[in-house]
Amino acid sequence: MPDLPRTHAILAEYAGRPPLSVLRGLETSARGLTEAEAEDRLLRQEADAPDGGTGRLALPRHLAHVAADPFVLVLVVLSAVTAVTRDPRGALLIGSLAVLSSLLRLRQERRAGRAAAGLRALSTTTATVLRRADPASPGVEREVPVEQVVPGDVVRLAPGDMVPADLRLLSSTGLRVDQAVLTGESLPAAKRAAWTGRPVPPPGPDAPLFDRPELCLMGTSVVSGAGTAVAVATGPRTHFAALQRDVPRAAPETAFDRGVRTVTWALVAMVAAAVPVALLFTEPGPTPWSHALLFAVSIAVALTPEMLPLVVTTTLARGAAALSRRGVIVKRLPAVHDLGAMDTLCADKTGTLTLDRLSLTSHLDAAGEPDDEVLRWARLNAWFATELVPEAAGDTMDDALLADAGPPPGDVRAVDAVPFDSDRRRATVVLRRDGRLGRDLLVTKGAVENVLPLCDRVRTPRPSPGTAAARDGEGAAARPRSWTTAGSADVPLTDDERDRLAALADERSATGERLLAVAVADRPAARRDYAPGDERGLTLLGFVGFRDEPDPSAPAALERLAGLGVALVVVTGDHPLVAVRTCRDTGLTPGRVVLGAELDDLPDAALDALLAPKDGTAPVFARVDPRQKARVVGALRRTGRTVGFLGDGINDAPALRAADVGISVTGAVDLARESADVVLADRDLSVLAHGITEGRRTFGNGVKYIRIAVTSNLGNVASMLAASVLLPFMPLLPLQVLVQNLLFDLSQLSLARDRVDPADLRGPRTFDARELARFAAVFGPLGALFDLAAFGLFWWLLEARSGAGGEALFHTGFLVENLLAQALTLLVLRGRGRRRGAPRAARTVVAAACVLALTALLLPLSPLAGPLGLVPLPLAAVPVLAAVLAGYGTTLVIVRNRFLRAS
Ligand SMILES: Nc1ncnc2c1ncn2[C@@H]1O[C@H](COP(=O)(O)OP(=O)(O)OP(=O)(O)O)[C@@H](O)[C@H]1O
After folding, report:
1. For helices 289-303 and 685-726, what crossing angle results, to 10°?
2. pTM for the predicted model, two decimal places
3. For 611-658, how does the pLDDT look when each residue is reduced to its tens digit (9 = 90+)?
4. Most buried among 222, 680, 684, 823, by the most CB within 10 A?
5. What is the ipTM of this complex?
6. Does residue 3 carry a catalytic annotation?
7. Phi, psi for 529 (deg, rounded to 5)
8. What's 873's DSSP letter?
9. Could you tell me which of 544, 564, 202, 138 has the C-alpha nearest to residue 374?
10. Whose CA is nearest to atom 12 of ligand 1?
């Protein structure tokens, strides 16, 4: 794969050349590649990819990764030490354990990987390319998965698109690209294809490529405007891929990662402490030094829940599969858990609290009276904005404006646009009309606060508006009566008038109406591209109003979320009064309303204080831009919350990435879906509630495994250490410790399929290392106590003191008792008990416990008994085992119930 200087050189070569020369160099045309050429290039591209284009780890590399696991390495070392101590059979068995556990993990991870890839494929990002059936045919737009874009493809860019390759622009309108992934710069950069006719010097080897206006690099995304470009480099050959290889960036840590890290470190500390303690305990007496070391290391292994990665992957994969059946696609497996851990959901209001079906409700002049003229200008703006930038952002408003409108008059055309974006909250088109040589007319519509300050004149109301227009018979999209803004009707905008207009807008917003201001400016035609700086000196014409009805299902869904312990924080780009009204209409009690502009002046500490939960209300953030949305999410996380962000727009992407779990919807723009961890088939809060419950179920079973494994291992190790002090020989051979550990771990894999107590689904759940420690501190010693009781009984009853045969008997008795006790532990500690309303254990768990118990009883009679150093138990052992286990089972249930009552 090319390195960074090489990708730089390839792009630099194409950057300075005229478009035609670029197309020739890539052996393509402005009408795109033919299907056959594209297929040919794709085959070559896939053959070239290190993973064969699957995106998954190749088998040998995956195997190497699994084999490098610390626990496997410990087993390998143990096997080597055993071989050195002249026990080849033991060495072979330990070696087989290493191979078995690696293969098991490999199989499970590949299965989970396949399932996750399948789920990701359900929400793939696509690119729009031009392809031709044959060289003579015209280019036709086709949506293809991003991985199928090949060099030479002509790509169309629209707002919300991820740039699918390294591209050289051929044409563009108001294109602005977010390059934060490459530059860290949050403000979008303007891109243009402009070719001056003279070759531009290519960028030097140190000049950053993202500075070049004619290059759009993979990894960046389109914020506004449109463009057509040709792909120069794709996939692993892009500048972004080379950059990643050079400086791999760690993904931000999620709630799930944090939890696993805490538990893992706690266990590593315990293991590290166990080895010297075990050595200390085994040193005296006749035990050879090498055996003592072996025993110490096997104790360390016994303490480690080595199946943790496997159990976690299995439970998550099962959770993800269950979610996909309910229309929730998980793109990153740990997001299943993060969904369950979420305690705060940030969402905008459109489509979450409202139906997202905007309808046009009013068109008013500056006095607040109905005026068709205003509607005509607003429609011209919407029509041409959509024409120039086909998938323009904020198109729900444009759609509503154009719903019953015909085409604009034939003598009007758009020459340029400064497209909508969430920072400016307005859209401008530049129109020319036949016969008006040398004049451009700017038509701007946008949020009242973002348009009014750009106006210095206002068109005064006309008498009996609407009637004249109706008589024109030109239809709603016809040319407005007065094309120029000059004339007696336009007067300078005074401060008093500004205040009055703002008050008028507030009054209507308070009813929930979403208002856009409409303004125009007549100028001498410009000979360059228009930019946001040209939106000034406008004449305000009036307003258009829309309504987005509250979603009738929202109150019930919000109640369900509240019942699950998830608080909603509304974060919207809309007007504060509209936001408050919508909250009230859906049964939410809005707390303090914070505007985006206020947010910028608020230091972190003040923001954190503002976010602290107060009297059941949550603050509402209104008129916030994309960066401010992300800041709110970051602040919530800082205050210890686990935050989900639900959004579908370009303006939501930074917040989706900043959240613990970014949630988007199938119909969202590519950028939003790409930035999300979870994609919902429908933007429906009750679907999300299902997702949260499933996440908690998954988490609940993972936690069960960790609790039971840590507790039981801790108990075992304690009893073995105690026994090694009391006995003149090791209580279990190292190999026996490992076999016992492996059998128990295998049985615990069944927990991935267990039922979960309803109590565990009620609130947000995260790993709680302290709770885990308390649990282990109570149940670990309890297990050890009964193990020691079994020792005592075996000691006297089996007369284990008498010679080597006695040792083997003791080992066998201890191993069998231990495994049977673990089967009981599995069944008892998995839940809260039937009397507390907990569901019965799943059949798989019961079966696993039975298999474990049967294996324990049959192992000493099997052919494996010899290599494992086991002997058949005498009949006298049966009552001992029965008494100890009956006592253990009963005590375990009693203590569990007490423990649960106390916690
Ligand atoms: N097509 C458009 N043309 C002009 N102005 C628009 C257009 N779409 C939206 N606006 C203005 O920009 C504001 C912010 O829009 P943005 O898309 O950031 O958030 P929103 O859709 O209003 O709110 P929400 O966050 O609830 O989805 C809108 O409230 C509106 O005033």
Report:
1. 160
2. 0.76
3. 887 767 788 999 998 889 999 999 999 998 999 999 888 788 889 989
4. 222
5. 0.97
6. no
7. -70, 145
8. P
9. 544
10. 425
